[in-house]
Amino acid sequence: MNPVLEEDEEYDNDDRYNRPLLRKVSADKKRDKSTVIDFSNNDGPDDTSIQRVYLEEEDLNILLVGYKFNRYRLYIYYILCVLTGGIFYLIGRWIPKLWVWSVGNVCELGKAEWVVVKNQWGDVSIEHVIRKYYGGTISSVFPVDHPEDNNVSRLASYRTDDILHNLHFFDHRYIRFIYNPILGKFVQNNFWKDPTWVSVKMLKKGVNRETRNEREIIFGQNLIDIQEKSTAQLLIEEALHPFYIFQIFSIVLWCLDEYYYYATCIFIISVTSIITTLIDIKQTMKKLREMSKFICNVRIFRGNLWRYVSSEELVPGDVFEISDKHLHIFPCDAVLLSGDCIVNESMLTGESIPVSKLPIDDTSLHILDLTTTNVRPEVAKHFLFSGTKIVRVRRAKSGITSSSADVGNTSDDDGALAMVVRTGFNTTKGSLIRSMLFPKPHKFKFYRDSFRFIGVLAIIAAIGFLISTYNFIRLGVNAVIIILRALDLITIVVPPALPATMTIGTNFAIGRLKKEGIFCISPTRVNVGGKLNVMCFDKTGTLTEDGLDVLGVRFINQTSSRFTELHTTVDTLSKSDSNTNNYSIPPILCAMTTCHSLKLVNGELIGDPLDLKMFDFTKWILEESGQGVSSGALDLPASSTHSGRPSSPTGAGGIVPTVVRPPNSRQFDLAEVFDADGKNGDGKPTPFIELGIIRTFEFVSSLRRMSVLVKRLRNQTIEVYVKGAPEVMRDICRADSFPEDYDELLHYYTHNGFRVIACASRSFTDLSWMKAQKIKREQIEQDLEFIGIIIFENKLKPGTASVVETLKRAKIRQIMCTGDNVLTAISVSRECGLINKASKVYVPRFAQGSSLSSRASILWESLDNPKDSLDSTTLKDFPSEYPFIGPYEYDLAVTGDVFRWIIDYGDEMTLYRMLVKGQIFARMSPDEKHELVEKLQEIGYCVGFCGDGANDCGALKAADVGLSLSDAEASVAAPFTSRNMDISCVIEVIKEGRAALVTSFSCFKYMALYSIIQFTTVSILYYYGSNLGNLQFLYIDLFLILPIAVLMGRTEPFPRIHPKRPTASLVSKKVLTPVIGQILIQSGIQFLVLIIIHNQPWYRKPTFNPNETDIKNFDNSMLFLLSCFQYIIIAAVFSVGPPYRKSMFTNVPFIITAAFFTLLNAVILISPSNVVVNLLELENIDYLFRWYLLAIVIADFLISFFMEKYVFDVISRWIGTVIDGSTKSDKKMFKKILAEMDAKEP
């Protein structure tokens, strides 16, 4: 038994070292049964020879089986390859399972010479196992860092400090698998983490040369280098493809039969096609290599010495300097140890906003998890991703420069330091490159059915082969001619040009999209765009303008305990508090100027657009130190404590604070501070205001807020300012600090589409600088005083409403998927028409418990009437007391926490009902957006996702059609990228997708009919011992079919999107009925003409010669001339117009070409020249009969057109009624759920 052929093997999931390879059975994945197989039972031939693995990053199940060469069978294989002229080699190449069976024996994984890797899609690859001397300890390759795991008892009998002499490993999809001799299994090395990484102090020691050499053997070079095949290898692989082997077979056959002209043309076309394909492959690989491969010099600390090495030599554990002026891009994944930096991560996330990075601490280091590519948010602020660009770096202490003299010293004085944690393809960038090299195969019905259709044609060819062989034997034809003619029939029924014609519509569509500024990197997704039935949109930057404008600020009037009037400028805001002195400012203004993540780079502020708009509103000035160039942020002497400025900051990274001050305030002057105890020459207080930001707690999506610790100059108090979502303020602010009209005002702004940010503050009088650096976030974000709200307006993009209306008319469901507030999302949805303004909207809340509790309960309440609610399980309204009133229209607006709870703990049918009724998914994290797309696909939706690239990469990749509005590099993860930054591109992609899909069907049907028509013609002629001539074949196949097949796909899409989607199945009744019908019509007319001509008095039978084919005869001439018209008739009939494409008359090149060949055929029929008659070997037909034949051709066209337009569709519906019954049952799960929810309660 060959384990590669087995489909029901079970995973072994009880091993600690396999655990990172397997899907983690956590609550959020427990329903993902479509991609996870139950591997609890090992019924394989030998547990030591087989292993099942789940690659979490790739979302891929693979089977590993160890093999050794069987020398005797290997020699037999070589002999068979020689004896069969290479045919056995080709079969083994096309069917790897046969090759494996022929040359290998199953063996233990530890003794395997090569490993067969089979994935869940049925793809089989063979990886050779490399053996290399290692000499290190077992624990250095397979560290045991989780003693609570189940394998401790199993590992107890082994000493992990034993020497591992040889490493056995192989690379699959650029992931390295290393054989673990203790477990007897192959283990990935991309989740490796050194057990000594327990404290930052330990990390700074770096690695010595011996350790470095060991780790290079384990991980290889730090290089994302795509293995590019040579031109010769690519040429051989392309030439040995089954399609081109069939081409070679056809060319040889035609040459033997003296079809030299056509054989030469097909040879030239094939060679051109191969060369073009090779050029495209080489160019694509060159672009990928240029994008992925990166080498630079890095200054590292190794063996107690600082030195420069190539980035290729980096290994996990190496400490390197990121403040080196020669370093502009991070060459590996690393954690920041000291200093701070700002990086641009657009290559990974599509987010062009620079991100700040801070040194890692022991707490974050403890939760550092390298088992997945995704990094936890708590660690991400310390994590430096490979390939990201360095915007700015600040050393641990300003004014200190590192030099080679600092031997053995990696203190903060040495600049900004980082430690390597992942290298090469194990990095996040490497994972992105792998996803581009090995995309998940897309199960599109059209492509699957096309191969089935070719299979049907092959069966027809086989039948024709047998019939013609019998007929030639009956006639007594020469054996050589029998073989040539019978084999030639196969090349007629399965035309070599068939695969190329399937891509014609797609290529034209891609060209038209490019003119519209929409670029496609995955041509197969163009046709998929024609089947979209749900479109998910991000909100900010996609449906609405990218930037938010500050509408105004409202804070609390202490007298009335209500909000003040809206302050639309900072001038009115600054003068609003009468209780403040000349140099005091309202707390809300302090929060706006300090509670942000803005950074100053080359004199320009960079950061989140919302923070930029907020800070611009204040008109304040921000200054940063660290390079000795920023005024207002100086290192003061230790004695200068009365100034309120810390003298020796030793906080995170040891960075002195960022300072903000009003535009007209005097800049800080140290001498002025000490003069007259802080008074100037006039005896008045020094007129300057500066706020120093001494610590920042970054925004965390799960908390939905950020906070800062701020110290005002000449003030001993440290202030806390918090900015975040209004919903979370109730949990962290004192109840008595909220104004009476808080809920009322919040309801007004959120329901009218405004973005609201709430602010709070708190004062600490006994918090020193040192304590401020050590205090925990939860200690400061409690018992806060609510101080006000900032209102932002987010305007719809000009084209949003019209696009939403267009998609709604086309019955394409639309979903908003955003990280914004649910009420704001509802308001924007109503404004743009995504949900009906008159329909009810139900919003969930936790009536009991929270998203982390399995016993929580959810209440779905109407937005306008909280007393109106839905059943929490069925998501339907409670039975009405008026039974004759049908169900009303309503939508669900789902929040991220409820979405997560229902996936983790909720009922499966409740989840599906939520998916079909949910129009808005708010407060969704990037991972939840990704999961939403996958869940929609699970219930049968063809899902599109359109986002601006910021945090949407996962969803864009998971969607059937991902459309990015971002120009960032991460947009390569999406099949489509639009430079037009509005959602009108969605309309274009859908229109072109439908046109391309219909064109593919038209071209496929046309090529099928062309084959059958020619098959019928040749089969009839074979019956009489005749055939078409060489130039007749050349005229039909090259001059007639090729231009028509190409140009008929040039028709542009219809300007409006029809509510009904085109079919994607080639074997559907709507496709097969007209194809079979036209076959009967065209074949019937050929037989009719044959009967008529046989009854003519001037008819003469073909002359039969068993050793030579008679070409020039009446049967040949009449069928050739008739079939030439039929090819054009079928092209016109199959050129589908509205509702998916424009009329074929708008396709001017096609009309001109069809008219030209129609006229040319008519001339050849009615009045051919002697040259044409001799070249095409035509018989002299009666002149009147020529006109009679032309009349038959016209009747053929009218009958074909009438049947295609009016009859075949009726017949297909009648067949459907007979087969399926009067009522059609929905196959898609989402349709069944919708029908169940819309059904009236009994």
TrEMBL record:
Residues 298-436 form the P-type ATPase A domain. Residues 638-650 have a biased composition (Polar residues). Residues 58-180 form the P5B-type ATPase N-terminal domain. GO terms for biological process: intracellular calcium ion homeostasis. PROSITE patterns: ATPASE_E1_E2, COF_2. Its main location: membrane. Keywords: ATP-binding, Magnesium, Membrane, Metal-binding, Nucleotide-binding, Phosphoprotein, Translocase, Transmembrane, Transmembrane helix. Pfam families: Cation_ATPase, E1-E2_ATPase, P5-ATPase. It is found in: Membrane. The chain crosses the membrane at residues 74-92, 260-281, 453-473, 1007-1025, 1031-1050, 1071-1093, 1118-1136, 1148-1167, 1187-1203. Its EC number is 7.2.2.-. One of its GO terms (molecular function) is P-type ion transporter activity. It is an enzyme of class 7 (translocase). This is Cation-transporting ATPase.
